[in-house]
Every structure is written in C-alpha cells, then in structure tokens.
Amino acid sequence: MADVQTTNQSILVVGGGMSGITAALEAAEAGYDVVLVEKNPYLGGRVTQLYQYFPKLCPPNCGLEINFRRMRQNPKIRFFTMAEVAGISGQEGDYDVTIKLSPRYVNEKCTCCGKCAEVCEVEIDNPFNYGMDKIKAAYLPHEFAFPMRYVLDPCLVGTDEGKKCLEACEYGAVDLDMEEATFDLRVGAIVWAAGWDPYDAAKVDYYGYGEYENVITNVMMERLASPNGPTEGKIVRPSDGKEVKNIAFIQCAGSRDENYLPYCSGICCLASLKQTTYVRELYPDCDVTVFFIDIRALDRLEDFYTKVQEDEKVTFIKSKIANITEDEDTGDLLLEGENTRTGEQILMNFDLVVLATGMVPNGIQVDGAPEVPCDEYGFLVNDPEKTGIYGVGCVRRPTDVASSVQDATAGALKAIQSIARR
Amino acid sequence: MDKKTAVYICTGCGIGDALDIEQLKEEGTEDFTIDITRDHPFLCGQEGVDLIKQDIEGEGINTVIIAACSHRVNYDLFNFGQGVIVQRVNLREQVAWSQPAGEEDTQMLAEDNLRIGCSQAKDTELPEPFKAEEEYSKDILVVGGGLAGMTAALETARAGYQAILVEREDRLGGFLGKMKKLITLPYKEVSEPGAEELIKAIEDEPKVKVYTSSTVEKISGGPGLYTVEIKSNGNGVSERVGAVVQATGWVPYDANKLGHLGYGKFKDVVTNVEMEEMAASGKITRPSDGSDAKNVLFIQCAGSRDPEHLPYCSSACCLVSMKQAGYVKEQNPEAVNYILYKDVRTVGQAEDFYRKAQNDGNIFIRGEAANVGEEGGKLFVEADDELLGERVKIEDLDLVVLAVGMVPASKPDTTPRIKAPADAEDADEDGMIEVVPDSGFFANSALNLDYRQGPELPTLKYGFPDSHFICFPYETRRTGVYSAGCIRRPMETAKAIDDAVGAAMKAIQCTEATAEGKAVHPRAGDTTYPEFNMQRCTQCKRCTEECPFGAINEDEEANPLPNPTRCRRCGVCMGACPERIISFKNYSVGMIGNMIKSVHVPEEDEEKPRVLCLICENDALPAVDMAGIKRMKWSPYVRFIPMRCLGSMNLVWIADSLSRGIDGILLLGCRHGDDYQCHFIKGSELAETRLSKVSETLDRLALESERVKFVEVGITDYHKIPAIIDEFMETIDEVGPNPYKGW
Amino acid sequence: MKYFLYWGCSLEGTGANFLVSLKPVCEALGMEFEEIEDWNCCGASVSYAGANDLAIKVLNARNLAIAEGAAGHDIVAPCSSCYVQMIKVNHEIQEDPELLRQVNECLAEGGLSYGGGIKVRHIQDVLYNDVGVDKIKARVTKPLNGLKVAGYVGCQSVRPFGEYDSVNKPVVQDRLLEALGAEAVPFPRKIRCCGSGIFLPEIDYCMGLVKDILEDALNHGAQLISTVCPMCAMNLEMYQGRINEAYGTEFDLPVVYLSQLMAVAFGMDLKKDAALNYNVIPPEGILKAAVG
Amino acid sequence: MENMVNYDPSFAEEVFRDVDAGDEIKMCMNCGVCAGSCPLREHMDYPPRQIFGLIRAGKREEVLSSKAIMLCTSCYTCVVKCPRNIPVMDVMHGLAHYALKQGYVPRKDTASFGKEFWKQVYRLGRIDEKDLPRRVFFSGGLVEGIKAMLNFMDIGLRLMLHHRMKLLPERKIKGVKSLQKMLDKAEGLGKGGAAA
After folding, report:
1. Closest CA to A296 of B327, B343, D114
2. Is omega for the bond preceding B522 within 30 degrees of 0, making it cis?
3. Within this chain, do residues A191 and A49 fall inside the same structural domain, yes or no?
4. CA angle B466, B472, B478 (to 5 degrees)
5. Which residue of A has its CA nearest to B345?
6. Cα gap C13→C2, rounded to integer Å
C-alpha cells in the first residue's frame, strides 16, 4: 500500500505530538527528508487534549495550527497516522524500519462530510475525552483533527451498522475490508518522540480513583474545561453534574513516591495551578485547595504561582493527603492528612478532587530494536557513545511543552549529525 | 505571466444542494476573464483532480480557482506545482455548512466569495524568491564561550557547518571552567565538569574557529548575509556568517544587595559562586581565618523568589547547593550541612539527587532566614522553621552560603534612556525616556546589531531575551539570531546543553532557508517578500518603526532600507504604509482593495447590509472553519477577507469600503497585551492602534464609529463566532444602512 | 496441602474460638497441619518496650529455623499479629545478609540456624490462593443466604508487603465471605486499626477507634462482623459494653471469626466445630436465621 | 527571643547510631502522610514527621519524653504509605525502646504492659493471657492493681465463661533456656543502646 521512497539520508520521527512534530519540522525546514509516524488517527498528541497552556493560558491548537501549516507547505515531510514502529534493524546511518498501519476503515476519499456519523447508531467511549462521554463509532477524533478525516471503530467491521456507514458515504471513502498493513523504510537516523501516558491513578488505591466518581485526574480536568470536551467547558461533578463549589487538587498523586513513581513528574504543579484558574474563572465563588509537598515553579513560571497565590479563594496546604473516603449519599469526599505547617489534622470535605497524576514515558517497545539505554524509570538516556536513535521530549524526562520543543529541536540536529557522519 | 484562468466549483459536501451552481458560475465570474468554468460533484476525488490536470496540460491553464472546501484541507491534492497559481474559494465551511440551503442570501454570499477569489487570483503573481547579489554564508556565529556557547559551536560543526565562537575572556569555559563538579542527567552522582575535554574537542574540531579575548563590535546585514566585526585582542577582524547564537550566559545576583543575610558584613558569608570557586581551588575554608569549614548552612533563594530582588526562581540553585553540600562532606565526613529552603525544586529525575542529599545526612529546613549573625567567631542563622512551627537558631557555623540566583548577562544594572519619540508622554525635560525591556536598546552590549531598532535582542520583563511563545521557544524578535542557555531563562546544566543544540539547529536551518529565499518561522517556506516602490516614499518612518523584527533600516534621509532576509513576511510594513508603496507578489494593498471592491453591495432598499470581516488567517479564520464544521449558523451578510496578520491591515481599505457603501467592518485578530498570541508579536495590537486613528476618516465621512469594530478571537473560540458576528450585525441594524451605497 | 500451623498464644486463650473452628474447616478443605515443635511467642508488637529489634527478630527466627529444620512447609499464621511479626522478619532477613548473619549468630547460642527458606503466609492467603473460592463454594452446604457481614480485615493481616491482597483496599476476605453466600457490605473502615496490642493500656484512646469501626459496620447494614485476628476480635467484641458506657451507644454486634462462619456454612456443628458458644455476644440467632 | 529552638546535630547522630531504624528518618521530606494516616494521631503531642524534625533539631528531651513515640498501634498504615519508604512504625518503636532504656516513661501503662509482656516471653517463651494483665495491673502497686483488676474483672469473667481463658497456668516451652541465651546475645548485639 503505502509506497514511501526513503534513503539513508532520511530521518524517521516516531510520535506526532508536540515533540515529534517539532523534530520533524525543524529537520525538514533545514532541507532534510523526514517521515513522521503517529499511532493516533490525528497528529498533535497529548497537547490536543489540553484546554490551555501555562503560563499564558493560550490554546494549544494555536501553535499546532501553525505547525500543521508548516507541514502543509513542506514537501520534505511525509506523515502517517495510525502508524507504529513494528521493527528496527541496522545501525546509525542505515536503519531498516518496519511501520505497521492499523486500519482506519476510511480512505483518502473522505471529504469529512459527516454522513457516516449521521447514520451510525453505535456509540463507543470517546477516547479523546478519556471515556468521559460517548461518541459515534464513525467519528472525527476532534474538530481540529489533522488530517481532517473520519475514523471507523473496528467494532463496526462485519456489522449492519458498518454497512450503513458504507452505504451512507457518497464518495466511496468507507472501506471495511481495510486490513492492517506494513511497509518498510530505510533511514539514517531515528528520533523517538513517543511522549508519555498519564500514570494509572487507580494504583494509588487509597485515593479511590475509579471507585469514587468525583475523584478525577488532571488530564480529565483538561477535557472538562475544554469547550470541545464532554461538558462543553463546564467543570461539573461526574456523579451528578453539579457545578463545583469546593475543589481539591492533590499534588504528587503517585509521583515522588517510591511506592509508585519515585521521580517528580515536573509539570503537575504548574498544571494544577493552571487548572485552579480554569475553576476560578468559571466559578467566582468556588473554593480551591491545593495539597502539595513542594511547589515546583521553575524560572519565571514562579510569576504564575505568585499570581495564583494572590487569589484569596485559593488555599495552599503543605500536606500529602493520606486517605480519601466518599460519602455515599452526597458523593462528597473526605480528605485526611496533616497540615504540616500547623501540625493540625486535616479532615476536609470537597465536592471534587483532582489528582495530579504524573508522566510515564513511552519508551522503545520494539522487538529486536537496537538497544537504547534508559534509566530505571524507563526514560531514554541519550548516550553520546550510542548515536543514531535519539529520545526527545517526555521520553527523556518529564517536562513542559517549551522544554520539550527545545529538546526536540536539539534532537533534529542530532539526527542530522548522524546523517552527516555518513 | 499572462494568465489562463479556470474556475472549478465542487458541488459535493452539500454545496450543490445549497446553491444554484449555474447562476454561481455566471454571477460569480462575470466581472473577470475566466477561460474555463466547470463544476464537479467530487472535485477532490481522483476524477476531479484529473479534470483540473487535463486543463492545465491540455488548455494551458496556469491559474486555478477552486471553489470548494476550506484551504486547510485537500491542500495536497490541489497542488499543481510551482508554475500554477492555486486560489481556494470557501463554499463549504463558510457557505453550505453555515448558511441555510437554497436561499438568496446564501447564493449572494457564495457569489461574492467567488468574486473575491477571482479578484485575488487576478492580482496574484508567482513569487520569485529573493536572491541577494552577495554570496550567502551558512556559517554560524556563536557569541559566548561557556557551556552553552561551546556546545552550540561544537554541535554546529558536527552537523557539517562552520562555527565561529567568540568569547570575551582569554579562555573558553565560562562558569563551567570554574566548577569543581557537575550535576546533570541522570542526577545520581556528581560528575566531572569536563570543561577541559570540551575545550579540547573544540580546538581539535577544524570546523570551529575560536576567538578568545574578543568581542563582537558590530553585526550588519541580515541572515545569510551578516558581516561581523570582531575586536580580537585589540585587532579588528571581519567574518561573514549566516546566523547568530547568543549564549552570553548569566551573572550571579549581586550579593551586596543581600546585606540582611550578612553578606559584606561577615567574611564567612559567601555566595554559591564563591563557594564553587573555593571548592574547585582545592579547599573549603573560612575566609575569616582560613581554617577548614566544617559546619555549613546554605540559604536557598537568596534574592530569588523575592519581589525585592529577583521575583523569579533561578532553577539551578537547589541542585547546586546539594552538590556543594557534597563537597563539604567529602572534605570532612563529620561535617554538618544545613539547607534552608522555601521549596525543594529538584524536578524530574533530579529528585534522585535530593534523595541522595538527604541520605548523605544533610539537614533540610523549610523556612526563611530571619537573621544572620556572629557569636564567638562563628556564624549563626535564625530562621522560622515552618515545619517545626518555631523560630530556630543554627549556631556554630563556619560558613553560610547564599544560593544567589541567575541574572541574564543581557540585563543592564540601570535601565538605559534614549531620545523619546515625538508623541511620547513620559519623556523627561531633556526629551529622554526609559527604554522598556521589550526593545532593542535595552540589553547590555553583546551583539551590536546594526539595526534601526537597536543593537541587541529585545527581552522579556526580567531582561531575558527568551521567546514569549510556549510552542516556539526559539522564536526571537531578530530573524536569524537565537539565544541559548541561561541568557534566555535560568536553567540547570542538562537543559542548557539541550537548549544550545536546539539553537544551533535553528541557526543552521535559518541559513538553509534564507539561501533559498524562503522565510523562516512562522511563514516558513514563503518565498514572497515586500517590495518597496521608493519613488512614492515620504520617509514617514512607520514601516521602520513598526516592523516587529527590525527588518528595515534607515538611511540618513530616513529612507527605509529593507533587508529581505530579515523579513518574516507578516506584512505589518504594508499595513503601516500610508502611501501604499509596499507590496508582495501575492499580497498587496491594491489586491485586497480590489477584492473588497469585488463584493457586490446591494442598494439600500434591498435591505441587505454588507459587512466586511478582515480576519487573521492564522487563528481567527481556522476558528470560522471550525464553526462551519460544527454546522453553526451566522449572518449571511458577512464577507471574510483573510489577512496574513491583522497587522498588515491598511486603513485605506476601511476608508474605501465605507465610501463604497459597506455598512460595517469587523476585524478579528489575536489576543494582544502581556500574554499576546499574535504570531507576529504586535500585529493585532498595531491593527487596533491604527483603528483608533480611523475615527477621523469616519468623521470626515460623517459615519458612526460603531461601524468599525475589533474583536480578539482565539483559535478555539469557534463557539463564539456566531455570537460575535450576529452581535455586530445588530449594531449595524441599529445605526442603519451606510448612506454611501450606490455612489 | 501440608502446612505448619503457627497459631500462637492467643488462639489457646482469648482467641480459642478461632482455633477450634479453624481446624475442622481446614481439614474439610483438605489441608493438613503440623505444629512447629516447641514454638515460642512471636513477641507481638509491644515487645519493643522490653526488647530491642534484633531480639524480637531472633524470637521469630527461632520458629522459622525450627520449621525450616523440619519439613519446611509454608507456615500459616491465623493470628495477624503473629503473621506480621514473622513475615516482616523473614523479609528483612532475606533482603539483608548482614542481618541474617547476626540472627544466626544469636540462633547459634541455641544450636539453631536459619537459611531464610521458609514462606510465611496468612490463613486468608492460603484459603484464597491455595484452596480457592470455587473449592470453598463447593463445600458449602448451608449458604449464609445474603447474611450482611462486615469483613473486618484489620491492618496487620495484609501488611506491610501486600503479598496476597491490597494493603489499602483489601478484597480477599470479602471474596471468601461471598463464597459462603454472605453479602460483604461496603466497609471503608475494614482496614482501620482497632488499637491492637495497646488497646488495654490505652483503652481511653482506643475505644474511639473501635466505636468508629462498629458504627461504620452498622451504618452499612452489617448484621455481624467477621475477623481473622484474635486481637481484633477481642477488641471489637469484648469492649462493646465499655464503649456503650463511654459514648452512650447501644452496640450489641456479634463479632465472629471467618472460620466460624465457614464452619456454619459447611453445615458443621455449631458448638463443637463452629464454637459459637465461645462468643460473648451470641451470633447463633442471626446465623441460624440466615442458614434457615 | 524565648522558646527559640537551638539546632544541635549531636542528638540526631545519637539517634542514627543507637536507635533501631533511627537513621531512616534522614529521608523524611515532611509530607505528613504518616500523621495523616495514624489512628491515634489526635492523641499525639507531635506528629511523627515532627518528631523527626525535633530529632534533627536536637530536641532530645522533647523527643524521648513525647507520648507520641509510645502511642503506636503497629497498624503499619504509615509504613505502607510513606513515599520515602521510611518504616515510621519501626522508628517509633525504636525511639520508645530507647526512651525507656534512657529512663524516660512516655506512657506509663503501655510501658509496663510492654515490659511485662516481654518479661513473660523471656521467662516462658509464651504469653499467659490471664497472668499478663494481672502483672500489668500490679506493676503500679497493690492498691492501683486491685482497682485495675476489679475494673476488668467483668471482661475476664466473661472470657472465662466462654472457654476463652486458659485455666491451667502457661508452662515454659522446652527450649526456654536456649531461647534466653539467644535473646541475651541479641540484646547485646543489637542496637538500642545501653540502659541509662
């Protein structure tokens, strides 16, 4: 199927999030051939699911749109969605890579008219909203999806519903016979930018995530605040849809904890500070309490921390919350802990609790791939002796968007060096 | 080129059902010379695309007008190569999906859109990339020979490009050279600083040319064409480079301002920099009597995170103090270190080093120092121990180390003053005014750019020449000049190294793009550039003042001297020029003027108002697309005219439109102010400022000021688009039709 | 399935109903027990007042050493306190060779030595993972039709290593109760401490803990509380009168051992096997009603 | 200024050296999860992590006489939740043991209960549940003892009536002599410091 001519002068970028897109563009705009593969049906990665960036409180799509525009006009970049690396062999300057394409069941004829979704009655958990709502099994992942093309969920294959979608499409874009396909690439260097997954909050079982409806994670909060999220931007309680009046943020929910993630996830402090502004913007009367161990607002991000501290409705308590129990009748949550400034016991009720869960890196899980060193937490280590495959962004260390982009830009040059060495 | 133009109307995606296609073909094109007009039910399908290709090959069509979906989709299918002009006309998101089908107003909207497109295509020329007479250089100048600078130079060379490294001191190394040990990824243990190895690698690298004891006296020209004058050991040298990396680093915050922490008062109160140098030189002793230091207390955030001193966090100090505590224990295992902190900020895997520091027995106290004093020749520190809830006193201290923060080398001690522009209010009696950080005249001398807008990179409020953009951290206000390392932001070693490599990447990329006459970010790849018709220039200086990137210099007579390789193609100069002498091959005052004129304005009695919407194509226009995709509805009386940046909006368009009977003009642009989102820094702000001057025009025409309105729209504000438009339409209804209709 | 059963001191006294009921039940499930020859007390948690950490470790190591020297089966501890004492020592010994050396240096005084090869397990672990819910279900002849039971895990029976169940949100006991046909009611305080070994000397402080636990069980509709620890059983059952005096409550909630419920569900003799007559707050009524 | 705490590292060194698990407190980052999860927290004069803070500060008197170090119910909740894997419970036990050795009595009843408990373990190798309380009660003197005894008589009787009091006195285990040798060795070999 996909017939892609590449040479050992080409660069493969794995992961179409902010880091991957950046690495790909920076190399391509310097004149190098780049192939970008992304496992989601759209580019943009984790940031597309964010409402705003700290500290500017600006929409991630703003920067993504510019990057997509850069891509549109640049013939040096070819990208594939629903694509993953299935195999890597060779060495610096000469890799053979096998790419696996999962079936989208929609081909390039799709005009995005939406007819398939109109007729489809099957619904699935909306992956874009972390399953907080349902979406038609024939769907556009989100409004800003790039490429702007529908996807059919595999559950439609061989069903009447699937047939309905097929028949509804006037352009012959629905193809339920599509099968998994692979193709091979020859490249000189590989940039690994597969990004991160949120840590599974259920593992910190005493916080009751997955057990208590009103305990959510920070990534879910981003969707709740987003106008294109499950609640169209209203921050409400999952249990009863009530507006939030008294919300708690629990920092280091898993991070900096040798029972879970011993490292600090780097971004959660600012993410929660940012999310306090979502809440306060929406509900002028809402009380916010942030439970923290240390607030880690580096460089001028400190200004943002200072700004949030000035809001008298936001309280900061240095305490690692020790337990959460739910009031079965009200769905409210009782938090227990120690206020380490006063030494007093904390027994506080909240109607919504946001767990600042950390980052887990998506390392290189490819059988037979050349060994790339990584630390005990799974973060890739760029060893100057082992060049050719370079980790960038959050696969190297948990870090914010700006730093990821800096790192990805650096990764682009490293890849170019691998080629130059030939 | 003489144009052969074809119009292709797609009737798919509901367009055919919404419109009378035959009438559209007729009405939408009649004012223009169109050679072929076709429609197709599925234009983006193979058959449709082939149809176009056949016309190009068979009929010699070289200008293709595609009236179908948004330009944001199917861009690849409708790309017919260099020689063919492609003009997209939006009949889907902006018409079929957002307007009721089969209505007269919908039809009129489609016809206007097509006319606008035809007009634009008519005035569009194929761009010819700018090519300078001189030969382009792809060499990279790196200013500053510390860790970041050396890294940038070496990595540049390893990518096959020539680097020129200029260092003020007589040897390379900067702070790295003064360090005893380094703490960096993976943060398990301290490591050798490796300054010598790095310097050696640079000396052995033929592609790095090093100038020590040297300063940059002047950088003139532009990307690809810079001439650098270097003063090296007193002699003048000249180099040609394509781009510049500024890695001039940081200076420690002046501890003399920290008298309350005993600095200057007690000999044994030292800064972390002095501590590092002492450790590197062999022994950690008490300056007062030269005896070995045993008990040491580190005061974190000495000056940092303090509104009186440095409001920001200096990022590296936590790790540095833990590292230095290690020195003390290494010298004497019995030694006791206290670390007095506000928050421990060991981010990411650096948490491991915090754990190590604790495991080594260092005592961390959360609280602020209240008093530093001396008793019997030993220091003591009083602090409020937040977690003990008590005032504590730590006595018998040999040394108190102030973890002072980082100040960018670019930050001047006292804010410079320059001659105030005529219209400035807050000028002093000598007509001088304080320079704002966001200006090329603010920062300390390092680059000496020969730019009309000042010799240095404009900075953010604390004097760091960092990017204001989160997504584009290498974006600077001076094309081809990139900052790296602690000059741009306080950062620890690991990040400074990555940053330097990234900056080298951007610099190399800039030279490559420039050599091909292409723009760099954000209009990367754009091969158009502004051309000045100098005969009509009145030396009003607006273009040279308003260019967000300082691209335009001035000669003695104040004539603008454009530097195309510095240009970012935003068109702000074009919008600023009252004489309309600045134009791009595919974007000019005349072209937009004609597009506006191509809109048919119905007679007053038809009661069909016409509103023009000058809209930012980067954010607001995609938002309108989204609104369409969401099938939102809005008034059919609005006509969208995309702008490269709202900053390219020229007031003449407002005047012309109003005098033609257009009832109102809506401007949709990016958020501005402190957290501006405009990709060209000041574009949307400039547009609004210009609007304030439009009132004269309105008064002259005796028109209501409500007829012109500016609204900030973010790319994700699509759900607000209908409300914004309909609200404005209500205002227009209230003020009534424009009396100039039909003139 | 052969094990060493280390029942410890309490099961010969205040926890007698545990041991009496445990033996027939486990036999019925095909488990065989041996006693650890001349076993000694585990030291429980309060020994620290009189002994240092090493002494307490040695105390437990002696039992481990004897077991290892004999057949070397897994040791099953029904008493949570015995379990936690032994498993903790065992882990620490296995992770720290220096400690093992020290311990053996002490054991040598009595001519013993320990190689760290014995596995220590709680009775819940064995019932859930070795016997299994299905086998238990199969043996049930008189299901406890929907009897509402609050499964009180206590704390030590799953800690500190969480080897067979979550240390914070345990489920094993609930699964076992369900296997008997009972309804395990939601019971957030199932893992909150009852005061354990210091209940007696700190009774004024600890009564409050038990009160909260009993309240939580009742609020969730429990008809009785099941437990797997003699200290929990003692504290929860014997002091209800005191608590009623102190707090004006009216607790009269039977507290039985999981093994007693199993004996009942297995259709065994309510006195001889289930030892229900050992309970001070009589559970017979409720249980008879349940099994019908 | 008054009640100013003077930092003195010597006590911390003492704790690291002589107290079982004492050196583990170095890793504390004052998150407070230990106190937050402690069943008897509300009755403690200092939360555990503050005990650690006082140790670092050198407040020997406050720490060794703090009732907090003897209110541990050994529920392990702090142990399983501590993000730095500090065995908080062991530290508290170690401190209590050390305090008693040093002649402090943070909690009278618990102290005598624990001491009697251990004495019996040492004497018999097992615990005699009916003998132990008696010894505990009377450790405070005769009158005290009788009061306490009567106080718990009802419970004792009920247990007896329900076959939950072993009537025969607990016999020594066979190997008690060798056990004692082992324990004596351990007492000398282990941490915990010499008696004051």
Report:
1. B343
2. yes
3. yes
4. 55
5. A296
6. 25
Query: Domain holding B655: CATH number?
Result: 3.40.50
Degrees to nearest 5, angle at CA B340 with B337 and B344:
105
Per-residue pLDDT reduced to its tens digit, A88-131: 999 999 999 999 999 999 999 999 999 999 999 999 999 999 99
Whole-model pTM above 0.80? yes
What domain range is A231 assigned to? 199-358
Same domain, A301 and A224: yes
Q: Which of A36, A176, A146, A37 is nearest to A101 (CA)?
A: A37
User: Are D85 and A258 within 8 A, CB to CB?
Assistant: yes
Which chain A positions have a beta carbon within 8 Å of B521's beta carbon? 29, 66, 70
Domains of chain D, each with CATH number or no CATH: 9-101 (1.10.1060.10), 108-189 (no CATH)
CB-based contact A323:D36 (threshold 8 Å): yes
Q: Please check whether residue B537 lies inside any domain of the structure.
A: no
Tally of structural domains, chain A: 3
Describe chain B by its helix, strand, coil percentages, rounded to 5: 30, 25, 45
Residues A352 and A208 in one domain: yes
Classified as helix, coil or strand, B665 is strand
Query: pLDDT tier at A3 (50, 70, 90 boundaries)?
Result: low
Cα gap B739→B250, rounded to integer Å? 62
Q: How far is D61 from chain B (nearest CA, A)?
A: 15
- The answer on A271 and A297 residing in a single domain is yes
Question: Does residue B486 sit in the same domain as residue B597?
Answer: no
| One-letter amino acid of A354 | V
Which of A67, A294, A410 comes nearest B505 by C-beta?
A410
Q: Which domain holds residue B474?
A: 140-249+410-515
Give the pair of three-digit tokens for residue B659. Answer: 């005098």
For chain B, which chains pass the contact test of at least 3 CB pairs under 8 Å?
Answer: A, D
Give the model's confidence band at D196: pLDDT under 50 very low, under 70 low, under 90 confident, else very high.
very low
Mutation choice for A interface testing from C169, C190, C219 by most A CBs within 10 A = C169
Q: Which residues in chain B have Cβ-Cβ distances shorter than 8 Å to A405?
A: 471-474
A26: CATH: 3.50.50.60
**Helix, strand, or coil (residue A46):** helix
Chain D touched by A342 (CB under 8 Å)? no
Per-window interface: C 76-95 vs D, CB < 8 A = 84
Residue numbers in D near C193 (CB within 8 A): 39, 73, 75, 77
Residues A205, A191, single domain; the answer is: no
Q: What is the CATH number of the domain that holds B175?
A: 3.50.50.60
Domain spans in chain C, listed from the N-terminal domain onward: 2-123, 133-291
C-alpha C279/C-alpha C283 separation (Å) is 7
Restricting to B residues 372-391, those with a Cβ less than 8 Å away from any Cβ of D are 382, 385, 387-388, 390-391
Q: Which positions in chain D touch C241 (Cβ < 8 Å)?
A: 154
Exposure class string for B561-599: b at 16+ Cβ within 10 A, else e:
ebbbbbbbbbbbbbbbbeeebbbbbbbbbebbbbbbbbb
> How many residues comprise chain A?
422
Confidence check: pLDDT of D1 > 50: no
Q: With respect to CATH, is domain C133-291 assigned 3.90.1300.10?
A: no
Q: Considering only CB atoms, which chain D residues are within 8 Å of B336?
A: 9
Same domain? A190 vs A208: no
Q: Which CATH class is domain C2-123?
A: mainly alpha
Evaluate whether residue A152 is within a structural domain.
yes
Residue A38 within a domain: yes
List, for residues B40-96, the tens digit of each pLDDT value: 999 999 999 999 999 999 999 999 999 999 999 999 999 999 899 999 999 999 999
Tallying the residues shown for chain C, one arrives at 292
In a domain, B305, yes or no: yes
C277 CB burial (10 A radius; 0-12, 13-18, 19+): middle
